[in-house]
């Protein structure tokens, strides 16, 4: 029977697959959901003794990717300076940087960070600086031009993706990527040697379209403390999409007490629509949910993210239900990021 009893158990308890969203709202290419009938069929197969259909061992016939990178070998791979993470202590925060030593400016299709040690790398926050910007003091989460390449951050459970066709951002030769690396000690000293891979458009090819994005976020200056033992404490944040646009994806981010995050659109005509309901948020699977077909919204649409946290003893991931919880970088603190990515219909306008 192999792993079939475990497959049955995780399906029946809904621990796997890591589908978190309400499948009745929107159509997403990476919903990670399994239909109820498919679950019943799998459980019936396990209960029947997990019979093999035929003589072939299908697992032995799997062809594994030749590259550790999501889209084959990148056009450029940069080593992030190694960091020694101690065995114990609170979170370790390291500011470091890498330089794109490329001979000419290039347009970026996609990027990926591969963690050297996934057991300790909590996340990264990135800031790309063109050569003329190097040395300027600014926040890691500061806004930037849609023309500038989006070099992906590392987030647990998320998967990299390429930009839509004919869409990308510029990476100037000599650009500097500043990284804030957050590590969580796991009981043994280790050295993290993470890498960044970038895929370019062919040299001389300039994509005509740009992605835009903004975060419906709550930061410390507007944070409301989550009371101890509250099973569903809510906060909201909103952004406005100024021009006619097509929404491509949503990325929710909270920590261990994160329970759900819903996104709503308030349209200029006064109507309201729910766009996505991440009903079973899981910190270990922080996915960027991408529409099968981008969602049109007219200019002036307000996007509201509504997040909820479970600070009760019923939350098995809760480190301490007796604690009032404020905003903070550690996983036992909390955050609220609701990232929305879209593409303006008029690519000649300003975001």
Automatic annotation (TrEMBL):
Protein name per its UniProtKB record: Copper type II ascorbate-dependent monooxygenase C-terminal domain-containing protein
Keywords of this entry: Disulfide bond
UniProt keyword NADP, yes or no: no
Coiled coil residues, start to end: none
Source organism of this protein record: marine metagenome
The UniProt record lists the keyword Disulfide bond: yes
Molecular function as annotated in GO: oxidoreductase activity, acting on paired donors, with incorporation or reduction of molecular oxygen, reduced ascorbate as one donor, and incorporation of one atom of oxygen
